[in-house]
């Protein structure tokens, strides 16, 4: 028996909500709240009669802490699932603290306005001290640790696939496969084709910011930063085939560098096709990826937000996308005094996801872990006062839930390594 408040009703949230409704013995009551209430109503209507979960909807601007507090006090949930955008992480954490409710999300905080001088001063200091320049990092949310501890509340950060499942794979490798992990390569392959020359698989603004930023990896106790797309490798992915992949900065590297003892190197690679890269480079060159507002015909326009309005809605890619994703981690290290390698990954089929929940696999591979993370919290398995990332909890029940709810793991004890 539990009451859950989900904030956001986009591509990822709609999958997470449908999966919560499949586990209606745990998710007995659920409120879908977002900026555009019509989307919440449409999803609740689609689910009516298919689940025992009692669904309600609400309108909320999650940038406004007072509105959030009013909604949370009114609904009185056991858990708030933040599946809106990373911009809202801090306001929703503040509201959860004010109301005494547990919190979870799928991506770490970044500001909507990267020109905000107050944020920029802290950001520039962090770039110098830490050595990576991504707009997002954990420091903002880790700063809430003491507040959540003192309040006896749990905050679970970044419980999608990557971040999220990839960290559970690391915890699993450490618990069951290795005495010492030396290197981790996280490989995110999307072998899907939606037939458009250019579209993003999740929120375009967040996606394009991430991909157009400098790459970085963790090596021998510090960050190494490189120009965007400067390191390219080819890899043959199970059930997908040969793909080009590029080294990116990714948020879970930051937490894994702290939580996996003695790890020497952590890298993250994502596959991209040539058409995607050509379009992105061109859009960047003409200024369309900028978050700085410009004046046009007497109106203020943020270029990347205007671009988002032109691009296909990621939620609409479901029926068109064919092929599979393959996301996982390759480890090297030592067990019982012997060197060994290990690969754990999930393969997910875009069309199978579409037939089950009406979404493509990127939303599915994020929404299912969000639901499974919530399941861990609501059943008391992942409840500990403080602010935590996924690898800090026991991976076993989480990976079992993923196996059951649509993202089963595959393994290899003799994988090809990435050079
Ligand atoms: P979408 O843009 O599809 O959906 C975002 C939702 O949040 C929309 O319903 C939107 O409302 C709502 N929203 C935005 N701003 C507000 C606000 N101020 N108040 C209330 N609601 C708001 O995004 P996705 O579903 O693609 O992504 C959701 C999250 O998942 C993001 O944080 C993203 O970074 C993360 N993600 C994580 C991954 C992982 O593996 N960990 C992978 C992919 C995504 P409206 O309909 O009005 O626009």
UniProtKB/TrEMBL annotation:
Residue ranges annotated for the Saccharopine dehydrogenase NADP binding domain, each copy included: 4-156
SUPFAM superfamilies linked: NAD(P)-binding Rossmann-fold domains
Domain of life: Bacteria
Name of one Pfam family that matches: Sacchrp_dh_C
InterPro entries: NAD(P)-bd_dom_sf, Sacchrp_dh-like_C, Sacchrp_dh_NADP-bd
Domain Saccharopine dehydrogenase-like C-terminal: 160-407
Entry's transmembrane regions: none
Protein name in the entry: Saccharopine dehydrogenase family protein
Organism of this sequence: Blautia wexlerae
